[in-house]
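Hi R.,

Here's the chain you asked about this morning:
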Amino acid sequence: MLMTVQDFETAARTRLDPVHADFIAGGAGDEITVRANEEAFRRLRLLPRVLRGSAERSLDITVLGSRARTPILLSPTAFHKLLDEEGELATARAAAAVGAIMIVSMASTVAVEDIAEATRGAGENRDPAPLWFQLYLQPDLDFTRTLVRRATDAGCAALVVTVDSPVRGAHERDLRNGFLDLPDGLRCEHMAEPGEGGRVRPIAMSPEISWQHIDWLRGTTSLPILLKGALHPEDARLAVRHGVDGLLLSNHGGRQLDTVPATIELLPEIHAAVAGRIPIVLDGGVRRGTDVVKALALGASAVGIGRPVMWALAEGGEKGVRRLLELLREEVDHALALCGASGVRDLTPDLVRAPAWPDTAAYATRPGGAVS
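And here is the predicted structure, written out as tokens:
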């Protein structure tokens, strides 16, 4: 019986090519940050309130005008057709069914237009939550402009710009496995030139990308822009000054610079830096409903999950992803009740107790080992 996120991973590993399982689980270098993301949540403690009676709880959120029935977003993850023949179509239908915002990856194996079409009619009772689109700013600005136009025309409600990737992270598991590209028959649909069998561009990671490019993008689109991967408080303040609409506080799941802090550890400082001027979505290490509650209490407007979605997709396709999202939503509702909260708006920092954060070297005990 699938009762936890860990159960989905365990079941998925029995079905997956070990190379593809390593692609999901792996991170950069010694994977210190991968482990730190989860361990930091475990070290936080919830301090509940009592006698604040409420028979029902609301998990609805609105972030940058996007309404959702759960505070759990689907963070952008690549190559879903490696895990299920329907790929991102299955993921999108599951997200729509539970009212969760899905951030479509620029490295998707299904085009954003088809993903948007798949969500239509997939929601129950109410319209599905909007899609957002994740973007790596490309040095070819004309091509970047084309991608933004495609996402806009498909109905995406926000752009999530990844800014922590001037170069690719060192994924040693993938290098050892020789997993350097998609197998024949699969491709990054957003990087393909028009026409059947068109050339597929590589996604360019460019150290030349700067705040000037953010300014250019701000002048190119009216969609809300979130920056994904800004970890330093000063960069958070700069984001506000450059007209950015929100932050996705993410360390790329530990897949870029190893040994950076866990995102939940950074959240209070980033929250203070933006001073409520823009919303913060947090991802990295969220594995339980209690993790969601901790992040919301410390100032996040929502959280994102990445690896759990991929394990669930590999385990059971669309039904697997839907079961995962419903499970986590139930856990959040249960934790809210036990914390004396009638909804996510009742979550405040006084409900969380944090011990002194340990040195991240403490997480380096299993270099290259499996990530749970």
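One quick note: Confidence is low (pLDDT under 50) at residues 360-372.

Cheers,
M.
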